[in-house]
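For the sake of transparency, this paper describes our internal protein records without simplification. Because each token names a local backbone shape, the row as a whole describes the fold. One such record is reproduced below, unchanged from the form in which we store it:
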Amino acid sequence: MPFRERAKYGAEAFDLAGELPQPFPRTMGPNSMAYLREVIESGLQSNMVSRFEKAFAEEMGVSQCIAAPGCTAALNILMASLDLVPGDEIIVSSITDYGTVMGLIKEDLIPVFADTEPGTPLISANTIEPHITDRTRAILAVHMTGTICDMDPIVALARKHGLLVIEDVCQAVFGSYKGRLAGTLGDVAAYSFDSEKTLGSDVGGCIITNDDVLAERIRFVGQSRGGEVVEGLGRVHAVNGYALRMTLSTAAITLAQLEIIRPAVTHIDRMIRLVSEALAEIPGITPTPIPDTTDVYSCWMAGFSIDPAAFTCDTDAFAKQVADLGLTGAGTGRYYLMPAALPFLTDQANKGIHPYSRPPASHTYDYRAETCPNAQNFLSTYVRWSAFCEKYQPEHCELVARIVSEVAERNRA
């Protein structure tokens, strides 16, 4: 059997050729080497993880930060800590990455994908509400590309139904909504510090919350393997837990990166708005919509939609042509449509395999692209390119617009 072509991550996934800035090599915080040296010279006795947790919590204005080896792992241990049962439902953004849903699937919870608002990659209270049932336990909103879901109505809807609100902030670190930081808008939030992300470390992630009880539960279940000490016996495992902890070296790098992130995000916000303004001037091109409520756009993935009626080529051909002209890493993002990107989940649901058997499932579930038509339509004409970063300058924004404009004129209907 031939080997599959495996997905690539980090620097390995980036084409470093071309005139546009690339995230790699990363801009490193000045204290990176000093913090790493401290870890080594301490003989691995450094308190670097707790220092990072304290610093990140203070920056976000919350009481608790739990460091994790990655965002996928962070969401996994969060789901394991919610004391839910197989067949409970989590309403999730339909446009996202597998890392958003892996944890809840591993915990035998059922993802219910809400459609996005037309022309956007974001879910809303309006698209969420029809999916609420008596088995719904939480809403997991993803701030895709760095634009932020309209969270106030989502939180109000959740409070009405007694639901937990989780934010996936992997692509929106230090983005701001109505003057408040993404990740502080619901009950609990997860972040990614993987090397290609805006706050890029070697890897890493974390969870933040103001719920001290939930934070302790996450540490117990997700990092202490559910182990507690019983007198006369020793360690016993009260729950089926995990040991998903951030390493000292990752904490050292991430702490140094945290110290330079604020001005970087401010600069990214300025540059992506320049790009968006320029792209909006090209007939047939619509840049990723920036909601009025997103007052700091911590853009990680830049992109635009094409009007199929305006051009003689399809989205794939348009993406290839802009990539060939220098829009490095340009391509479509159809794989972000979760109802279509999880064939194993479709098979499980179709065959009624646990947790889709009844019980614990309360009804049948349908995972097809057509179940989220707005999301499907958005991704069918969407072109995105390699991670937007703090290295962009106004001349790079102009170059992006020239490339897209040239391809648009070349293929105009």
